[in-house]
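Why does residue order matter? Because the sequence determines the fold. Keep that principle in mind as you read this record.
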Amino acid sequence: MSSFPISRGPLLVLSVLIILVYVLRAFLSVSSGDSLADSVSMLTWNIWFSPTKMQERMKALGKIVSDLHPDILAFQEVTRESLAFLRKERWFSRYHMIPPDVTGQENHFVVILSVFPVVSWLVHPFKIAPYKNRKVVWAVTKSAVSSGAEFIIGTTHLVHAERNTRMRELQLRETLRILSVYENVCVMGDMNIFEGRFKADGVVILPSSWTDAWLSVPENENKNGYTWNARKNPFSKFRSNANATYYSNRCDRVLCKLSDFRVKEIKIVGAELTQSKIVPSDHYGLFTVIELSENVKHKGDETSEEVFFKRPLNWEKSITQEGMVFKVLANWQTDLNLKMNILDTAHSQE
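Structure:
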C-alpha cells in the first residue's frame, strides 16, 4: 500500500472532464461540417417535378440519402412541394442549402445541399435559354477534407430535347468556362445529353483539364451508365412506345476538373423498386466519391480548351424525327387526358 494515498474523487472528476472535452470536440467537429476526411461523397439526382406519387417518391429518395450519407447533394427539378417533403427528413438538417431561399424560384429549380460550411455561392442564368430555370449554381465549400483543399460543387439542368442540341452545347460550354477558374471543382446534374452514334449530340468532347467521372472508371462506358432508362424505369416507360431514341440515355453526368483529387467511385442509385413498387424519379441518381490524390493526371478527350459536340453525319435527321415523336406524344397525352376525364365523369355520376 502506498504511503501517499490519492483520493479517487479528484481523479474521477478529472476523467469525466477529459471525456466531456473529447465529446464536445467531436460534436463541434460534426456540427461545423469539418469531416477531417480524405474524400468527398456526392449525390446528384433529377428528382422529377411531377406530383405523381410525390410523397412516396420523396420518402424513397430520403431512404437512399439516409443510407449513403453523401457530403453533398445536387438536386434538379425540385419543387416547393417536394422540398417540403424532404425538409421533414431527419438528415436534412445536416446540410446547408444553396440557394437558402427558394421563394422566388420558378416552378422547378436546382439546389445544392452541403454538409460542409459554404464560403460563397452564386447563381448564373444561362445567356441563351428557353426557360428561366435553366442556370448553373455553384458553391465554394470550407474544410471539406483534412488537407484543407478547397472544393467547389456546381449543379445545372441543361435544356432538354434533341432539337435543342446547339443550345445545350452552348450552355455546357458556358458552364465549364465559368467553373474552369477553380482547381478542384465538379459540376453535376441532368445535362439532357443525347450521346451516341445516331443521336444529335454525338460524342461530347471535354477540354483537356476536365474529366467525365463515369468514364474515368475503366469498366464504365455509355451503355452501362444510363440514368434515363425507359425499358426499366416505370416512370419513364411512356416514351418507349414512341421512338427508340428515348429508350435510354446517359442524361445525368458528373464532370470534374481536379488538381488534388481523383474519382474513387461512381455508381447508379435508385434503380431498385421499393416495396410499394416505385422508384424515386423518372431518372436514376449518380453517387460519386472523390479522394485526395497526389500526381493527378488530367484526362481530357482532346487538346481542345472548349467543350464541343462531335455530331454524327446527318444528325439533323434525328431532330426532324424527334419533332414527329413529340407530335405523337402530344396526341397520345391528349387522348389519355380525354379518356381520364370521361372516366372521372362516369365515376361522379355513379
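Residues 25-35, 239-243, 323-350 have pLDDT under 50 and may be disordered.
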